[in-house]
Design a protein that fits this description.
The structure holds two protein chains of two kinds. Chain A is of the alpha+beta class. The longest helix of chain A is centred in the last third of the chain and has 35 residues. The radius of gyration of chain A is 35 Å and the shape is globular. Chain A has eleven helices and 29 strands. Chain A starts with 13 loop residues before the first helix and ends in a 15-residue tail after the last helix. In chain B, a hairpin with a 5-residue loop joins strand 23 and strand 24. In chain B, the strands form seven sheets. Chain B has a five-stranded antiparallel sheet. Chain B is an alpha+beta fold. Chain B is 16% helix and 37% strand. The chains are: A alpha+beta, B alpha+beta. Chains A and B meet through strand 1 and helix 7 of A and strand 1 and helix 1 of B.
């Protein structure tokens, strides 16, 4: 539609003038011969010609280099990459770019950042919508490539532990590891000998910098475990069932014998929440600012810690609740029950989102990995099972343990730890993405007392174990994500940064109603609830408000409104509607027949029963 | 045994001195940033709410005229200068940065019907009820000099509008016919008529500069080519059009402000169907002006409000009104596309922001980045019911609000009747006319 304006009759050709004025400055390295030749045969045409020759070269090359943005093969080593470029671009100065073009990005990394399911086809809709979808898809691909490229800038590499020529890593002792690693890492292994106040529960803050632990005889302490600086140490004179940091290290929730208490980092009691009584387990959902508590009375209570209101109190109807964990991917709470089921809860629903029968006996421990893909459970039947949470809820692997695990935890990189009596076992997966393989032990360690609480420290290769003899911090190479995000959870953040982060986090507090199994559901077209709403509305009203009202003939004047004529008019309309219906059903039948006749001659296959 | 533990050097993560910036390493791994969609949704919701909180579009009111403001003109070279003509024949020149009148001229007896500036910005033209066309210098007269027009042309009939060519020393007036004048001469180069009716406005096309459009009170819009002596073609609508405005970016597109409360965006090449019918006003639309980007336009209406429409949308994105603003007669979108001016019956010129919640002044790069990010988020989640409701909500004066309700009922009744007629007649005998085609009576070439 747009067309360049035609120049007027006597409009002076301004553009040409400007071009002539703005001459390209010549650099000292631009071919020495040029000025001499110019001097020999002066005149602009020759000069222009050279410029024309030089210019088109550039876009051509960039075009070639730009095209393979995603290399189809996994990342090529540097030497190979160099060779694959047939003719490296030469600068005018003669220097040569050893790494021309944008850095290649491996496909797997791009896949990680991809948000659109490309297996779904774009619907054949109106061209405008289709265009928009196509543009969005292209944009999405570009952003995922860019995000993947930013991975090149990550500074740290994950840790590892390998046995030399067939040595079993499970036989390596903590003392060996401590001896082998640098001093800074060795200092991360420590043992707090606290026999007096009984088995300990412990919790690391979200940044992994702070550690809080509470003994069942009332001892509560919080410390910066990296510098070993004690923040507070109190005795609450009551049994401590569980302890948990709230959104920052400044607040501490402690489930005591009767009520739930909240302390600050100096040990001053800020709140006593009497509506949460006899709490056994605590979970904090950091993006929703919800503290989930499971109680002996069988209630799962969600407390909004930003406003101090109880969002939901759900009766699980399964007796005492002693096993709870959260799914960090979708903030769904998993509760383990004594009948062997694990139920999934969200504060928006009174009923569980799902129930999974996991064990023959009761469930002793549940944990979910950070991607929300795998759930590990252990039960009274001495089984340890790993479930797939992506829709199927089927066990992927199972293993019988001699004692059965009482405590389970996943690390950020997918290591699974189980506490059995006074022994801690750790399993690792083959790759980053897969579930841990239960065949081969990665590490094992014996403690001075039975295990009572377990957690991997975020962003550090450390596992914290609370037991009856105190608290142990043990080294597990390769457990943690090496590169943290400075804006999200920064272990090195200052007070000012923490305050700023707190404000930001509170501003984007996710409402509790949005918790569901698929956290991406909000970005999709919601067809089901629309139909459901309509159905519910009809049920509520007892009739369909959008349905056609039955025809009611208007009364007419001067004796035409006799009963017979009214009935006649009504019948007329009814007949018309009936005819329309019949016409439609005929057409449907016709279409159905055509569909059926199409694959003529193909016999029904035995596999047809699996077609949905 | 080969072992490597994760061991960070704190020096790489903590700033050296207090004067340094904090070091913030980033990792965009999605597993470290869960709840991407719900968090973005909350951000979008907050951004939408803040947009409504900061929506304070009214900037200033320029008072000084002693009668209703009848026409406005932009200065082509200076953003701060605006000209206005009133119903008592007075022309005022305003400085927008100082928000003051810098010059007042008693230009005509009776109304100043139309005014336009020359493309170079050195002079301007006015037409009035006293059958004259006057050319004025833009600069104020020197000390001791009298306020006098450069040229005065005495005509035979009343001129109702004027517009200047965008590149040449030619201007066009309208009245009973469209006259095209050379600036140097006192008689028109050519005059064009099609029927006998008073033409209310004439506008030059800013891209195809030889094209003109005019609208007359016999309900038609006529297009002319200056190089020919006869008009090109015309389209007849249901009711009369008050003004038209050409899209400054798309040569073929113009928008007509109609008396039937609607605005029609036409493609010049296919006049039989408007491209979009813009509906939202509840009274006659009196003036329309395009943003220099060509993506939006503003319309002034007799219902005491001005509305901003995207070119491709049939509903307005914004409505501006104040308690004191009466029937808005003229409206202009400034050349930097940031402000809107409107002149109304009660002698004031009002200055509005084109984007109601925009922050004025220089933005820091972080502010700019946050603004862009929020804009994108709002776009992404705009169809969510909660966000949609907040973004769409506008407070309306009671008169407009009740008018909208009333017209909705009327429209519904009309629609019902139409459907009934269609249902009770022989299939095919009553044609279904689309909303776009309904208002076009005929196209004549």
């Amino acid at each position: 539609m747009e067309r360049a304006p035609k120049p007027g009759k006597d409009v002076p050709p301004k553009k040409d003038k400007r071009q002539a004025k703005r001459k390209k400055p010549r650099r000292y390295w631009e071919e020495d011969t040029a000025p001499t030749t110019d001097r020999a045969c002066p005149g602009p045409p020759r000069n222009k010609k050279r410029n024309q020759e030089l210019r088109p070269q550039k876009p051509k090359n960039t075009h070639i280099l730009k095209k393979p943005r995603i290399s189809k093969k996994p990342q090529v080593p540097k030497k190979l990459r160099k060779r694959t470029n047939p003719e490296p671009e030469r600068n005018l100065s003669g220097a040569q770019d050893p790494f021309p073009g944008p850095a290649p990005v491996p496909v797997e990394v791009v896949q990680k950042f991809c948000r659109i399911d490309k297996s779904k086809k774009i619907p054949h809709s109106k061209s405008k919508t289709r265009n928009r979808l196509e543009v969005a898809e292209a944009e999405e691909e570009e952003t995922s490539v860019k995000a993947a490229r930013s991975e090149l800038l990550l500074a740290e590499e994950p840790g590892f532990l390998e046995g030399e020529n067939g040595e079993d890593t499970a036989k390596i002792l903590q003392a060996d590891i401590v001896e082998a690693v640098d001093i800074a890492s060795a200092a991360k292994h420590f043992d707090l000998n606290l026999r007096q106040f009984g088995p300990y529960r412990l919790n690391y803050s979200r940044t992994g910098r702070h550690l809080a632990f509470g003994g069942s005889r009332g001892h509560v302490a919080a410390l910066d475990w990296v510098t070993k600086r004690l923040m507070c140490e109190i005795n609450v004179m009551e049994a401590v069932r569980d302890i948990r940091f709230l959104h920052s290290e400044a607040l501490l929730a402690v489930a005591q014998n009767r009520w739930l208490h909240i302390y600050d980092n100096q040990g001053i009691e800020l709140h006593c929440i009497r509506r949460c009584d006899r709490v056994t387990r605590l979970e904090f959902l950091p993006f929703h600012f919800l503290l989930a508590t499971a109680s002996e009375t069988g209630f799962l209570t969600y407390l909004d810690v930003s406003v101090g209101k109880i969002v939901a109190a759900l009766n699980a109807r399964a007796g005492r609740l002693g096993v709870m964990t959260q799914n960090p991917y979708n903030a769904v709470i998993h509760l383990g029950h004594s009948n062997g089921t694990v139920s999934l809860w969200s504060p928006a629903m009174k009923e569980p989102l799902a129930k999974i029968l996991c064990h023959r006996g009761g469930v002793r421990a549940v944990t979910v990995d950070s991607t929300g893909t795998y759930m590990a459970t252990s039960g009274l039947d001495h089984q340890l099972k790993i479930f797939d949470l992506r829709g199927t809820f089927q066990p992927l692997s199972a293993r019988t343990l001699p004692q059965g695990a009482g405590h389970l935890a996943f690390s950020q990189r997918g290591l699974l730890v189980a506490g059995m009596g006074d022994v801690v076992n750790i399993w690792a997966g083959q790759g980053q993405a897969g579930p841990p393989s239960l065949e081969q032990l990665y590490l094992t360690h014996r403690l001075s007392g039975p295990v009572h609480g377990l957690q991997f420290c975020p962003f550090e290769d450390v596992l914290g174990v609370g037991h009856s003899g105190g608290v142990t911090s043990m080294l597990v190479p390769g457990a943690a994500e090496p590169n943290f995000d400075g804006l999200d959870s920064n272990p090195y953040r200052s007070r000012k940064q923490r305050q700023e982060w707190e404000v930001k986090a509170l501003l984007e507090k996710v409402p509790a109603e949005l918790i569901c199994l698929d956290p991406r559901a909000l970005a999709e077209v919601d067809v089901i609830s629309l139909e459901q709403e309509k159905k519910e509305r009809i049920e509520r009203l007892g009739y369909d408000p959008e349905a056609k009202t039955p025809f009611q003939p208007k009364p007419k004047q001067k004796g035409r409104s006799s009963t017979a004529s009214l009935v006649k008019r009504k019948r007329k309309v009814m007949d018309e509607e009936h005819r329309e219906k019949v016409r439609q059903s005929f057409e449907q039948q016709k279409q159905h027949k055509q569909k059926k006749t199409k694959p003529f001659g193909a016999w029904p296959s035995a596999l047809d029963r699996f077609v949905r | 045994m080969k072992v490597k533990m994760l061991s960070r050097n704190p020096d790489n993560y903590v700033r050296e001195t207090k004067l340094d910036l904090q070091r913030v390493p980033r990792n965009y791994d999605p597993t470290l940033h869960p709840f991407e969609v719900p968090r973005e949704y909350v951000r979008a919701l907050n951004a939408t709410k803040l947009e409504r909180v900061f929506a304070k579009p009214f900037l200033a009111s320029l008072d000084g005229h002693r009668d209703g403001v009848n026409c406005l003109a932009k200065h082509p070279k200076s953003l701060a200068t605006v000209l206005s003509g009133a119903c008592d024949g007075e022309v005022r020149i305003w400085n927008l940065t100082k928000q003051k009148c810098i010059r007042a001229i008693q230009a005509h007896e009776g109304f100043v019907r139309g005014m336009c500036t020359r493309f170079c910005g050195t002079s301007f033209f006015t037409v009035g009820d006293d059958k004259t066309v006057k050319q004025w210098k833009m600069d104020a007269p020197a000390y001791g000099e009298e306020e006098e027009p450069l040229h005065t042309i005495l005509g035979k009939t009343v001129y109702t509008g004027i517009d200047h060519h965008w590149k040449e020393a030619v201007f066009a007036t309208c009245g009973q016919q469209v006259d095209i004048w050379d600036e140097q001469r006192t008689s028109p180069i050519c005059s064009m008529t099609w029927g006998f009716d008073s033409i209310s406005s004439v506008k030059f096309n800013p891209i195809e500069t030889f094209l003109l459009g005019s609208c007359a009170s016999d309900r038609n819009i006529v297009l002319y080519d200056m190089r020919q002596s006869t008009p090109l073609k015309k389209v007849i609508l249901d009711m009369r059009t008050n003004t038209i405005c050409w899209n400054p970016m798309e040569a073929f597109i113009f928008t007509a402000a109609n008396e039937d409360y609607n605005l029609y965006t036409f493609d010049m090449r296919a006049l039989d169907t408007p491209v979009v019918v813009h509906k939202d006003h509840v009274s006659a639309v009196l003036d329309v002006d395009y943003s220099p980007t060509g993506k939006e336009f503003v319309s002034a209406s007799f219902d005491k409000s001005i509305r901003i429409f995207p070119v491709d949308k049939s509903r307005s994105r914004e409505v501006y009104h104040t308690k004191r603003m009466q029937h808005v007669i003229c409206v202009k979108w400034t050349s930097d596309s940031k402000y809107i001016m409107c002149g109304s019956d009660e002698m004031n010129i009002r200055l509005w922001k084109a984007n109601a919640s925009e922050k004025l002044g220089v933005l820091t790069s972080r502010e700019k980045a946050a603004k862009d990010y929020n804009q994108k988020l709002k776009e992404k989640f705009r169809h969510h019911p909660h966000i949609k409701r907040i973004a769409r909500h506008r407070h309306l004066p009671k008169s407009i609000y009740s008018q909208i309700q009333e017209q909705r009922i009327m429209k519904e009744a009309r629609r019902r009747k139409e459907i009934n007629r269609l249902k009770h007649s022989k299939p095919g005998s009553v044609p279904v006319v689309s909303e776009k085609k309904k208002h076009v009576v005929a196209v004549v070439k």
